[in-house]
């Protein structure tokens, strides 16, 4: 855990003399903390023995982490005092030693290579920019300019990305795996865009968005299971039911403010999950529902080799050769269309009175209430609409998986969707796409890492927030400018 | 009647645990206005440290129960507070003046990190432990039996609460803490080291959560890396129920939730107890939005 500290108000002076004792003391303290952190949990491992729990000591890992923290902290401290170049060489040397020389333990090698590498990067950065440390405000301004450029470039990037997404299944690259990842990404993009309406536009912190996703998924699964309704009938129904549940939850709790509201939505998400688990006569309980029917081609044809009585087969209808990929491609386009519908809706509604009212509420509730905006109705609308989109995404999820269980709708899913919205920069549609690629795409690409994936995911969330607290692409241009005048130098009102 | 008393005592001991965790939430919320989502994980760490300490003592041949319990308690509080301190230092302090959602996301990230950290280090399987403090105290001619562990939990919590109330109300540290809670800037101008007080708040919260973690280990005898989430959510519910920012409120909220859970499991069925808890939370927030003991908030324009 060697991170550069951004202690607020740390004096930024190019010290003439290097404060060795101070740096050593600082590094020593960090190492002591690391020792306390690692002794019980890293140094002693519980192991299952036939006779009960046993314990095993791993002193070498404790020593390795303490050393890593000590030298890491020392290195960072010295970089801060203008000794970047020597630190760079030493760190590179350490990394080289780790790579080249056979070492007794794998842990030590990892420590040398990873620690040396990170410090070397930091030092190289300091050497090239001739400054020890960017202050938070400087960095924020810099990133804000980048974000503004990216947002202005979205005009050109978005159509390209859209065409790319449309053409993807036609390229020879498109195999099953790639399309599956594409579908997964698009599902989260859709959920992110849906939640963005509540969090980004209306400024309500919703920690239970997955509840509406679950309502949508179970609506379709149960309607198909009990009444044999088809996907195309159920999709609007699922959206309606989710919107209805949004109103049901929203009505009593929307007058709560801020974090109280957040915790109630969290509670609601948990209630929905517990109902799904416990009402097993109806929902199948923890075992979930399997055999959820796949969607047909708009009710005209099926995607199987031998369709049911009275239905045409897709490949025969279009005179193609049968391929199991057809269904996947169809699913891909389906979720693409759904996601784009959400995006289009958001882009348009921001220019309508409803969207304007949401943004006004987000910026200042009392001021907008005194201007005659009905707070409860506006928030309820945001909540219900976002819930509806969540419901659409949910029923798509159910039909794609063919199997759903309460396992898929835990709090962590809500947290991931919220993370996508906040990391991308609240209210930014492009930010949601970028954050989804980071949050869902990267871990998907590193599937082999298995256990360490979620570890890195959690750490990544922290690091991105530390690095850019307002989100990656948080930049807002003023919606209206006085006399069409020049744009102010800084981005829109930062909260 | 006997059944009622039995459930009452179970509920009180469970409520004591929720209350201990809730104090950490309520203090942190009071002083920096954020939901410390990783607090449930801190409690989980406390539980694991207690387990590991016990196993290590066993490996060293120390099996005298009172000594083992004291060492477990001390080790768990010490090491867990270091985790509380570190989490604040790494994930929250740099975000002191950021938009409201940034520390929350950082906290959620930290919570995910700590959960997986524990899973990787100690394994995903649940850890069973034989009862360390077996035996029951029977009262009312044997009709009601109270296990020593539950009794110890209630007594220890009461003692901690008394000590903690004195700490907050009488000592200079407590005065500084309350001053920061009211106005950080002003407290800073008057010579209070605000960063240090905030760190100490996290340390105190973590130490109390560690006690809760150890007691849960002793009562239920089985823990896993996932226990922090639900306990965290419920304890936050307790803090909100009692009125965020109020220490007696946190304890009261914890006890109320513990009692509801225990009576609901005893008389209705254990499957729906969480629904009962959350429904109660919604009801309280609708009819009394500042919680049972909270001060009404004044909206500034």
Relevant terms:
heterodimer, A: 495 residues, mainly alpha, ABC transporter involved in vitamin B12 uptake, BtuC, 2 domains, two-stranded antiparallel ribbon, two-stranded antiparallel sheet, 18 helices, 4% strand, globular, disordered N terminus, B: 301 residues, L-phenylalanine transmembrane transporter activity (chain B)
Write structural notes for this entry:
The complex is a heterodimer of chains A (495) and B (301). Chain A folds into two domains: 20-133, no CATH class; 141-478, Orthogonal Bundle (ABC transporter involved in vitamin B12 uptake, BtuC). Chain A is built from 18 helices and six strands. Chain A has helices at residues 20-41, 59-80, 84-100, 106-129, 136-167, 176-201, 210-227, 231-253, 258-278, 280-283, 314-317, 325-349, 353-363, 365-370, 375-401, 411-424, 429-445, 451-467; strands at residues 44-49, 52-57, 289-290, 301-302, 312-313, 403-404. A two-stranded antiparallel sheet of chain A has the order 1-2. Chain A has a two-stranded antiparallel ribbon with strand order 3-6. The radius of gyration of chain A is 27 Å and the shape is globular. Residues 1-15 and 488-495 of chain A have low confidence and may be disordered. With 301 residues, chain B is mostly helical. Chain B has one domain: Orthogonal Bundle (ABC transporter involved in vitamin B12 uptake, BtuC). Chain B is built from eleven helices and four strands, in the order ααααβββααααβααα. Chain B has helices at 2-32, 39-60, 65-92, 101-122, 148-170, 172-182, 184-189, 194-220, 227-242, 247-267, 273-287; strands at residues 127-128, 136-139, 144-147, 222-223. Chain B has a two-stranded antiparallel sheet. Chain B has a two-stranded antiparallel sheet with strand order 2-3. In chain B, α1 runs antiparallel to α10, α2 packs parallel to α4 (101-122) and α9 (227-242) packs across α10 (247-267). The interface between A and B is large, with 70 and 74 residues.
């Amino acid at each position: 855990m060697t991170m550069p500290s951004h202690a607020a108000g740390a004096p930024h002076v190019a010290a003439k003399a290097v404060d060795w004792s101070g740096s050593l003391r600082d590094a020593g303290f960090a190492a002591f903390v690391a020792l306390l952190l690692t002794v019980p949990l890293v140094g002693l491992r519980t192991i299952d023995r036939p006779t009960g729990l046993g314990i095993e000591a791993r002193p070498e890992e404790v020593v390795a982490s303490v050393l890593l923290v000590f030298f890491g902290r020392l290195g960072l401290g010295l970089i801060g005092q203008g000794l970047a170049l020597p630190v760079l060489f030493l760190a590179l040397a350490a990394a080289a030693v780790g790579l080249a020389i056979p070492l007794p333990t794998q842990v030590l090698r990892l420590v040398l290579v990873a620690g040396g590498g990170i410090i070397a990067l930091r030092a190289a950065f300091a050497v090239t920019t001739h400054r020890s440390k960017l202050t938070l405000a400087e960095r924020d301004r810099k990133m804000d300019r980048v974000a503004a450029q990216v947002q202005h470039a979205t005009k050109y990037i978005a159509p390209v990305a859209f065409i790319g997404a449309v053409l993807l299944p036609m390229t020879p690259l498109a195999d099953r795996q790639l399309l599956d990842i594409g579908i997964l990404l698009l599902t989260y993009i859709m959920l992110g865009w849906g939640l963005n309406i509540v969090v980004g536009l209306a400024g309500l912190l919703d920690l239970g968005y997955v509840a509406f996703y679950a309502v949508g998924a179970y609506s379709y699964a149960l309607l198909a299971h009990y009444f044999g309704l088809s996907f195309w009938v159920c999709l609007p129904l699922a959206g309606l039911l989710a919107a209805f549940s949004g109103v049901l939850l929203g009505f009593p709790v929307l007058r709560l403010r801020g974090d109280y509201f957040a915790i109630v939505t969290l509670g609601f998400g948990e209630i929905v999950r517990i109902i799904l688990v416990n009402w097993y006569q109806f929902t199948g309980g923890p075992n979930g529902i399997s055999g959820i029917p796949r969607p047909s081609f708009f009710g005209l044809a099926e995607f199987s080799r031998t369709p049911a009585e009275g239905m045409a087969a897709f490949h025969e209808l279009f005179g193609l050769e049968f391929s199991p990929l057809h269904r996947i491609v169809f699913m891909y386009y389906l979720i693409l269309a759904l996601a784009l519908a959400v995006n289009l809706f958001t882009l348009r509604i921001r220019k309508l009175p409803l969207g304007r009212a949401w943004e006004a509420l987000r910026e200042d509730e009392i001021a907008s209430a005194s201007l005659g905006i009905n707070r409860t109705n506006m928030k309820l609308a945001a909540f219900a609409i976002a819930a509806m989109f969540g419901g659409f995404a949910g029923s798509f999820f159910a039909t794609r998986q063919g199997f759903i269980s309460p396992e898929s709708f835990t709090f962590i899913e809500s947290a991931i969707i919220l993370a996508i919205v906040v990391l991308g920069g609240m209210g930014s549609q492009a930010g949601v796409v970028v954050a989804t690629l980071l949050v869902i795409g990267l871990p998907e690409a590193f599937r082999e890492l298995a256990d360490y994936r979620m570890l890195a995911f959690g750490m990544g969330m922290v690091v991105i927030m530390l690095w850019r607290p307002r989100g990656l692409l948080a930049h807002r241009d003023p919606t209206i400018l006085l006399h069409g005048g020049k744009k102010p130098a800084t981005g829109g009102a930062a909260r | 009647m006997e059944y009622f008393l039995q459930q009452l005592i179970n509920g009180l001991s469970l409520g004591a645990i929720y209350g201990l965790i809730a104090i950490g939430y309520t203090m942190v919320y009071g002083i920096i206005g954020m939901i410390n989502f990783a607090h449930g994980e801190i409690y989980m760490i406390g539980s694991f440290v207690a387990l590991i300490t016990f196993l290590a003592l066993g490996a060293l041949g120390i099996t005298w129960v009172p000594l083992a319990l004291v060492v477990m308690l001390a080790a768990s509080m010490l090491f867990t507070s270091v985790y509380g301190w570190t989490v604040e230092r790494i994930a929250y302090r740099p975000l002191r003046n950021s938009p409201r959602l940034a520390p929350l996301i950082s906290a959620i990230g930290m919570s995910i990190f700590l959960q997986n950290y524990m899973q990787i280090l100690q394994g995903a399987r649940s850890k069973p432990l034989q009862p360390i403090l077996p035996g029951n105290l029977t009262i009312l001619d044997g009709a009601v039996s109270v296990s020593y562990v539950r009794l110890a939990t209630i007594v220890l919590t009461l003692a901690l609460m008394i000590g903690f109330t004195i700490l907050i109300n009488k000592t200079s540290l407590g005065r500084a803490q309350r001053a920061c809670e009211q106005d950080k800037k002003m407290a800073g101008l008057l010579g209070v080291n605000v960063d240090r007080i905030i760190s100490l708040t996290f340390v105190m919260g973590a130490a109390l959560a560690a006690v809760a973690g150890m007691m849960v280990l002793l009562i239920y005898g089985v823990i896993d890396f996932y226990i922090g989430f639900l306990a965290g959510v419920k304890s936050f519910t307790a803090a909100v129920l009692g009125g965020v920012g109020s220490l007696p409120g946190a304890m009261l909220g914890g006890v109320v939730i513990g009692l509801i859970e225990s009576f609901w499991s005893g008389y209705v069925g254990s499957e729906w107890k969480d629904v009962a808890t959350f429904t109660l939370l919604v009801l309280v927030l609708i009819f009394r939005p500042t919680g049972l003991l909270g001060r009404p908030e004044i909206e500034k324009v």
